[in-house]
């Protein structure tokens, strides 16, 4: 039963590859039948839990409630999408986002729940570092607007360069990953080579300092919560 549960969870998650918009599209009837089969297996597995578990314990377990809600939402969305498809009306399979709930909430997925719980507990503790990073990004974006916004510079495509604050924030955010380096600084560099110092300072502060700090905080807090979760499981 455990192997079958893992197989159908994998099959249910893999449907995204074959559903529109898909990498390898299959007819809607095929994907919908496979999804219904997976949901029936999940429902049968849940009923098996209900048979071997006291009723009060079963209904107090939030994992079982999550699985029930996910099954209900998936069936409802599938029915609505099928009806709209018959009338040639465009729709979106919004229930795809609930499919990972099956992977997390079945009893066999204890290790995945531990990792997910550790990530969830880590998020509040990395908020302060993330806010500092965003403050630095916003300040550098404001500096870029003041430095380059009034110089009527243009990109290689002939578009305005660093004149809109929100676009500057996005461009510098991408620069943190160095994905648009050095293209993003070339219009300013062509105007004056001294402007390269601005981008060098930005990369040092945000890419090398803040990203290293962010990674260290995430790793240390995740490791701490993982040990706490592991200790709690061992005690149980």
Q: What report would you give on this structure?
A:
One of its GO terms (molecular function) is monoatomic ion channel activity. This is TPC2 protein. It is found in: Membrane. Residues 5-224 form the Ion transport domain. Keywords: Membrane, Signal, Transmembrane, Transmembrane helix. The chain is an all-alpha fold and 236 residues long. It has two domains: 1-108, Up-down Bundle (Four Helix Bundle (Hemerythrin (Met), subunit A)); 119-234, Helix Hairpins (Orthogonal Bundle), CATH 1.10.287. The protein has nine helices and no strands. Helix 6 crosses helix 7 (165-176). It starts with a helix and ends with a helix. 14% of the residues are buried. The mean pLDDT is 87.
Keywords:
mainly alpha, Four Helix Bundle (Hemerythrin (Met), subunit A), Ion_trans_dom, monoatomic ion channel activity, TPC2 protein, 2 domains, Helix Hairpins, transmembrane
Largest sheet: none
Output the CATH class name of the largest domain: Mainly Alpha
Radius of gyration equals: 25 Å
State the shape.
flat
Low-confidence stretches: none
Structural class: mainly alpha
- The beta-strand count equals 0
Number of domains: 2
Q: Helicity, in percent?
A: over 70%
Organism: Baryphthengus martii (Rufous motmot)
Pfam family, one: Ion_trans
Subcellular location: Membrane
Protein name: TPC2 protein
């Amino acid at each position: 039963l455990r192997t079958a549960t893992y197989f159908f969870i994998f099959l249910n998650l893999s449907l995204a590859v074959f559903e529109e918009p898909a990498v390898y599209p299959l007819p809607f009837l095929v994907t919908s039948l496979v999804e219904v089969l997976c949901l029936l297996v999940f429902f049968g597995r849940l009923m098996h839990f209900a048979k071997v578990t006291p009723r009060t314990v079963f209904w107090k377990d939030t994992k079982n409630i999550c699985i029930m809600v996910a099954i209900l939402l998936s069936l409802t969305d599938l029915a609505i999408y099928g009806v709209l498809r018959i009338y040639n009306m465009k729709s979106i399979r919004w229930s795809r986002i609930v499919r990972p709930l099956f992977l997390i909430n079945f009893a066999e997925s204890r290790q995945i729940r531990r990792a997910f719980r550790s990530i969830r507990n880590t998020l509040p503790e990395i908020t302060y570092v993330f806010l500092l990073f965003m403050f630095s990004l916003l300040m550098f974006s404001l500096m870029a607007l003041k430095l380059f916004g009034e110089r009527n510079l243009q990109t290689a495509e002939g578009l305005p360069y660093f004149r809109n604050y929100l676009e500057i924030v996005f461009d510098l955010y991408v620069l943190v990953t160095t994905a648009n380096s050095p293209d993003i600084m070339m219009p300013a560099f062509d105007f004056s080579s001294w402007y390269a110092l601005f981008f060098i300072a930005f990369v040092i502060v945000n890419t090398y300092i803040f990203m290293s700090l962010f990674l260290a905080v995430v790793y240390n807090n995740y490791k701490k919560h993982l040990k706490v979760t592991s200790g709690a499981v061992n005690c149980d």
